[in-house]
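EI: anyone free to look at a 293-residue chain?
SC: sure, send it
EI:
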Amino acid sequence: MTIITDWTAEKAARMTRANLAFQHSLHERPMFDDAGLISLLDRYPREKLGVFTMGEDPVDWGSWRRGSPGDLSGEQLLRAAQEGRIWLNLRHANDYLPEYAALEEEIFAEKRDKAGLRTFKRDLGMLISSANAQVFYHLDVPLVSLWQLRGQKRVWVYPVAEPCVGAEQLERIVLRETAEQMAFEPSMDAVAEVYDLTPGKMVTWAQNAPHRIVNGPMLNVSLSIEFMTPAALMRANVLYANGMLRKSGARPRIQTAPHPKALVKIAFARAAKAAGVSKTFERTLPETFRLEA
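SC: here you go
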C-alpha cells in the first residue's frame, strides 16, 4: 500500500512543477501519537532543536523570536507546545533517528516509483506547534512538501511573480544575501491558493513559491520535507548566476536547462561558489527566552 493514496498520472507528471494537494496515510502511524512525539523530543539532538515564538499579526514577521528549550524533557516540551505559543522545528530528523531515516527512504522511494523523481539533499523535518501559531511569509530555495499529521492549519501559497516576489529579491535569497522572510501585504492573499490541511492531507508547491501558515486552535504536528531534483538544483544555480550578473549591471532572465544560456550560468554559479566570490548572509537569531517547566 502506498503512503499517498490518491496518485494520478496527472499529479505524477506535475509534481515539483505545480501546487498540488494529496491524501496520505501517515497520520495513522503510532510514531506520531503523544508517546511517539515524546520519544522523538527526548532523542533528537537538543542543540539542533529550533524553538520559536511569534506575534499574531501576519505582517509583523519581526516578532519571530528564537528561544532555548532549557532542560525540559520531551514530555515537558510537548506540554509547552500544547499550552503555549511556540513552534518546535526538528530539522533533518532523518539524519539523527533511524525510524525517520527509514520514513525518508519510504517516502522518496514512492516518489521515484510513482513520479519518476530523482531526489537528493533531503531534509525530513518534524514540526510540533501550538494552537494559532503561525509561520510568516517566506520562500524556500529547495522543493517542499508539507504533510499534516495532527490538528489543522491553513496554508497560503503565492505565485512566483510580482508583486509576491521580484526577480532581484529571489536572487538575493538564493545568494543568501538576505533572509528568506519577506515583507507581506494582506492584499496579496487575493492571488494566493489556499489549502486547509487536516490529518491525512499533504500539499506541495512550485519551487520558490512564497507561502505562509496559520495553525487552527489546537496542537499541530506536521512533517515538512525539503529536497532537490536535478531540475530544481539547475534552477537554483541559474538564479544564483543571475544574481551575480545583476550586480554587474545586467538584466538577466531565468532559463531552464538544456537551454545553452542556462548551462553556461550553471557552470558560472558552480565556479563562483567554489571561489567564494559571493558573501553570504547568515541570519542567526539570538535566544530571547527560555522554556521552563
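EI: The longest strand covers residues 120-129.
SC: 👍
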